[in-house]
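@channel sequence for tomorrow's demo:
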Amino acid sequence: MVDAGVDRQTVDTPDVDRRHTDQGLERKQQLLDTAEVLFAEAGYAQTRIADICAAAGVAKGLFYWYFPTKQSLFAELVRTMRKQLRRAQAAAMDPRADALSRIRQGSMASVRFMAEHRAYFTLLDVERSEPALAEVLRDGSDVYAADVVRLIIEAQADGTVAPGDPQLQAVGVLGAVSSFSHALRNGAVDVDVDTLAEAVGDWVVGGLTAR
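structure tokens (generated this afternoon):
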């Protein structure tokens, strides 16, 4: 959870590098969105580049302009969703609030984001066991943990979070968000998203303040 700023695209000569034009970025996002749906429906291994191109209504040449391989597209999809999640967390956290409140706000925002992008996170549930994709999925997970650890250390300093190993406490925060969100996706809990987000926020705060 981080107060992430807007990522900037470096555009030197838009007329030369079509990948950086507005239309080019829209086409690239179109391929990512289409692949996300197809991966969720059929699985990563069963989805061919030809399937993605056909569903997106583009030629294979355009696909290869942006992505040299299907795995590179998957990696870009993961990076894009990671950035969007961190932006959602940052937008939900009040910079004037204490660190514990920001942890709660970020946790609730994460639950809502995962529910909004249910197909993508369902895809990750399935594809984590795919050896070719495991490294892609691990990449960046330490960033989330570092964000939470930083906030926990800040909260411990002001006395709102119980003493303890911040690394272990961060695992608990991330585990609660992930587990409750997974339970919503697979139907193990039958509540609306806002109710679940509030419950997760309360659970996280309770765990961090227990002595």
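heads up for whoever presents: The chain has a mean pLDDT of 86.
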